[in-house]
Structure prediction request, 171 residues.
Amino acid sequence: RLNPIEKPSEWKEKAQRTSGELNERDQRREEFWTAFRDLIEDSKTPLRPRKPQPNHYYSNPIGVGGFHISYYVDEDENELGLELIIENGEEAYYALQDQADEIKDRFETSENTVYWGDLRETRAGNMRSEVGVKRDADIENTDSWEEYFDWMFKQGKLFHEVFPERLRQIN
Prediction:
């Protein structure tokens, strides 16, 4: 039985990609999430570093099964956001909806907008939804990344303060 003592490095995987495999948007996303992950690794936060991908989202556990948080960027709408993803949780969705005013009071500011996703059925037949915050952002402007990361850390910390205990009481 072999126990690996070292993980494969990300740079090797990136170097093995053929040129042109990632378009400019995906490269920027991967750079953005890599910089965010590096900040998570270097700080004391409830957030956990995850391998960055060239996706529009970056998922993170919240410590309660069936729920996770997901950061996202939407370049078309110039938005940056963070969502609590509610997997197969119709009961949790309605229980959180009952606390919507309290939740909104914790998150809504002049730069944040709180929103509730509609409860919808997945292909697997589960009910899924999300509650999130979003703000204006343009990740093409790398000079603003530090500001965005500060906002992301603040919101991530708030999500960890507001949601886990509520979710444990529901389950």
Q: What stands out?
A: The two ends are 39 Å apart (CA to CA). The chain is about 40% helix and 20% strand. The helical segments are 10-16, 24-41, 90-98, 100-107, 145-170. Strands lie at 57-61, 67-74, 79-86, 113-116, 120-121, 127-136.
